[in-house]
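hey so u asked for the seq, here:
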Amino acid sequence: MVQMRLDSTRLPGKALLAIGGTTLAGLVMRRLGGIVADEHILATDADGALALAALAVESGFSVFAGPKDDVLARYAMVAEAFGLGRVMRATGDNPFVSLRLASLAIEAADAAGADYVGLVGMPVGMGIEVIRAGALLRAAADATSDYDREHVCPYLYGHPDSFSILRPECPAKYRLPGARVTVDTGEDFRRAVAIVESLGLDAADEEVLGWLKAERKDG
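ran it, structure tokens below
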């Protein structure tokens, strides 16, 4: 399940910005389509559904419109509507999610039976989070702060006495402190465009990591 909306405060309309012959939203869904799942779902608000529905369907994603600011409630509503057992959470900021890291997170969730799994240590924007649907619904029922409801998962890992939390280190080859491939700002978007122009739409993890290392060396 990927969350998107159109009115980002730092980079308004970023979901529809052109990149690699598609849009940022299209590139994100293209990447996430490689994760094996029973459902691929775009969780957005009413405006996002109007603007992104055709692209989502073309990308093989179902569309669900929920609350604009209460993203935790939006996720819980989708989980209930689709009868999900667990959710792999992604965001519309991240066009270079690692399918390998996603697979490792899913494997860790399977092995541990954890409520929440999120790898740490890789460049910001390369990972997903795996959440058991029952835990997600409990969080949606109990969380009260605006921050917890907007950001979905902090309530879970902020209450380790109530939920089983697993946050393993990513493999060593992915560790690149301070690196980022998420898109929050204009600078981030220009970096994403440069990566796509250099490596193509379906760049392998190793290529993206190499590009980031070269950027750091040049900088």
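Residues 199 and 207 are 7 Å apart (CA to CA). The mean pLDDT is 96.
lmk if thats what u needed
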